[in-house]
Design a protein that fits this description.
By secondary structure, this protein is of the alpha+beta class. It is 36% helix and 17% strand.
Length: 318
């Protein structure tokens, strides 16, 4: 994808609620609209962290669950696409303190003359819909999971485990396998803890979709409300206590590599190269990102071990 190719790509619309993103359209004369949607470019916003968008998707792929995440890839806008974004921002009536701050930040970055760092997020699945029933959007601070929702209840080790082959209706027309859905959401909550997600439950940031057989799955389309910050917050870990055993083993393997690079990991021998390729490339030094990812993984894995000590096999799905 070369967004500098103005003969192939056009930009006519912004997206985002508090963040400011630019929709990407691929010119296509065979389409009745004259174009096909190719997703959005997301620059750094106070409300959107493209590094974590990329890292959450890539981590889901490493764990074998990329099908429940909207793909995101590293991208830097050149001068043509950057000016298109600047022009669009100038045409929109942007209001609200968060969006105005984001506007100023993006324009300053464009005016610096450097490539505008961010990510491209793929077009959303056509069957995707928001799923706020799993969220308590009024909880302090910035929302929390709805403790009464069946999926969240299944993710408490003290409760019964979900049953394979048993249908669960998430929303009218969206029926899925009880165990499969609970496992998917446990993985999402695990990744949220690792990436220090702070905006999952404020509204509109949990979604579901259908696969080719019409079965419902979770579908995380907005993962940028997160920061691998200099301080750790255990809030995300307090909300669930049942895990996918295979996912935890893979996270153990990753932690071992970050602790002892000589062990290697997925062909990598240098943790700093790994974290940059994971998606953490534009905001902190690679050394800081390695340190914070190692720390976060350590806290998550310590919590899993403590939960297993307390609940035994009930801490896992199988």
């Amino acid at each position: 994808m070369n967004l500098e190719d103005s003969a192939s790509y056009t930009f006519k619309e912004l997206s985002g609620s508090t963040s400011i993103n630019m929709k990407i359209e691929k010119i296509d004369a065979s389409d009745p609209k004259g174009y096909k949607s190719r997703g959005s470019f997301v620059p750094r916003n106070s409300s959107a962290n493209p590094d974590v968008e990329i890292a959450a998707f890539n981590l889901s792929a490493i764990l074998g669950y990329d099908q429940i995440y909207r793909p995101a890839a590293r991208y830097e806008l050149g001068p043509i696409a950057s000016q298109a974004l600047k022009s669009l921002i100038g045409k929109y009536n942007i209001h609200g303190s968060a969006r105005l701050a984001n506007k100023a930040r993006i324009l300053k970055a464009i005016d610096s003359g450097s490539p505008l760092k961010g990510c491209v997020k793929a077009k959303k699945d056509d069957t995707g819909v928001a799923f706020d029933a799993i969220a308590n959007t009024h909880a302090a601070s910035n929302g929390a999971p709805n403790a009464g929702h069946p999926i969240i209840r299944f993710l408490q080790a003290a409760n019964e485990k979900p049953t394979a082959g048993k249908s669960l209706t998430l929303k009218t027309g969206y029926d899925g396998d009880e165990l499969e859905l609970a496992r998917e959401y446990s993985v999402i909550m695990t990744i949220d803890a690792i990436t220090q997600q702070w905006d999952r439950y404020s509204g509109g940031n949990v979604a579901i979709r259908k696969d080719d057989q019409g079965r419902a799955h979770f579908y995380m389309t907005d993962n940028g409300g997160a920061d691998l910050s200099d301080s750790w917050n255990a809030r995300n870990l307090t909300w669930f206590s049942r895990f996918d055993r295979g996912v935890i083993q893979k996270l153990d393997d990753l932690k071992r590599f970050l602790d002892t690079p000589a062990t290697g990991y997925l062909g990598y021998s240098d943790p700093e190269v790994f974290v940059a390729d994971l998606g953490l490339y534009s905001q902190n030094s690679a050394a800081i990102n390695v340190q914070r990812l190692r720390r976060n993984l350590g806290f998550v894995l310590d919590y899993v071990r403590a939960t297993e000590t307390k609940f035994g096999d009930k801490a896992f799905f199988d």
